[in-house]
Amino acid sequence: MSCRNISMVCPREKSRSPFSFIARNRNSKSNSRICFELKFSSAGMVPAAVITDVTSPSRTTSEEKVYDVVLKQAALVKQKKTDRSIHEKKLLEQRTGNISWDFLNKAYDRCGEICAEFAKTFYLGTLLMTPERKRAIWAIYAWCRRTDELVDGPIASHLTPRALDRWEERLAGLFEGHPYDIFDAALSDTVSKFPVDIQPFKHMIQGMRMDLKKTRYKNFDELYLYCYYVAGTVGLMTVPVMGIAPESKSSAESVYNAALALGIANQLTNIRQNSARRGRIYLPQDELGQAGLSDDDIFRGKVTEKWRNFISGQIKRARMLFDEAERGIAELNSASRWPVWASLLIYRQILDVIEANDYDNFRKRAFVGRAKKLVFLSVAYGKAVAAE
Asked: Where does the record place a coiled coil (predicted)?
């Protein structure tokens, strides 16, 4: 097997989520017949948690769709294999085995360089992982970064639906052991070694398609699905690599749901930082209307009492998701917890910064400085070790 050289999609600072982990609706430790749902008030702003049976009709259309994916991914991990037949998996391993170790080492190193450049804190956290897991996480990160660049990178204005179709065709090829370039080679090798399924990757591409044609979200249900596509999927990709702790008493579904909560919380935090981008408004239209706000108010970027009240409610929603995610980290393999804790602590801190900026995310960039990141990295390490 050979890898065809093409010009890579050059990653730059990611505008969506940094690397996001997913744990069951980021918390629940329930059995396979129970799921943890997030319910919101009629205004959609103040979240409340309720436990319901998995067959409950109370889930929204988007929640049901995502939950079905979670169930499938959890089942794959339990089986310790992907949905390919054993024969197909052996063929994939044989094809990827035709690539030399030197080439694969170089491929993984290139992916690691991308992670180190654009997700420095997370990259440091991965260094405690086993070599095989660490490299696999880098490969997944590099693919996600490049995918995001298609919509938000230098070529974004020239992107067409057909280009995304070709990107998905390349994805299918690498899952079958036919990588297109050096970065694809690393991911192709990863999926041959871990029970990683193609569906979350395809769903992330679907999120990019939404960005091409959708500029408004009429309610949180629509926004939830978008957040799952572009960020929640990352957790579904990475849980099989990070691994569930052998001593964990939680179901695989609960771990995946917690990971999902972190991905969506990270994405909602990104949205709070930058509510409108490229003419798109990533806020629920019905909740904006209930708050007495309009699209024009968003584009004018004026901080009013109505805006403060609205964003305050949105921040509460994100914080609840972070809380749910926090409960799932302890269920991960001990060596994988540090980078996840770091991601959660730093992103949750961004919400505090937005509040400190008097909710002015129009003119003031909410970010966590390097010194504070190092502090959180240390705190994350302590939490990861304490959970052992």
From this structure: none
Contact 162, 170 (CB under 8 A): no
d(CA 380, CA 51): 29
Q: What is the DSSP letter of 277?
A: E
In single-letter form, the type of residue at position 104 comes to: L
Backbone angles phi, psi at 23, to 5 degrees: -130, 155
∠ CA 53-56-57, nearest 5°, is: 170
Tens-digit pLDDT profile for residues 281-301: 999 999 999 999 999 999 999
- Rounded Cα gap, residues 243 and 334, in angstroms: 9
Residues 43 and 312: beta-carbon distance below 8 Å: no
Angle at CA of residue 224, ends 264 and 283, nearest 5°: 100
Alpha helices, DSSP H only, in the chain? Answer: 61-79, 86-96, 101-118, 120-126, 131-152, 161-175, 182-193, 199-213, 220-227, 233-242, 252-273, 285-290, 295-300, 305-329, 337-356, 370-386
Sign of the C-alpha dihedral computed for residues 283, 152, 207 and 143 taken in this order: negative
Cα(234)–Cα(20) distance, integer angstroms: 6
Q: Quick check: 95 pLDDT over 60?
A: no
The confidence band for 278, taking pLDDT boundaries of 50, 70 and 90, is confident
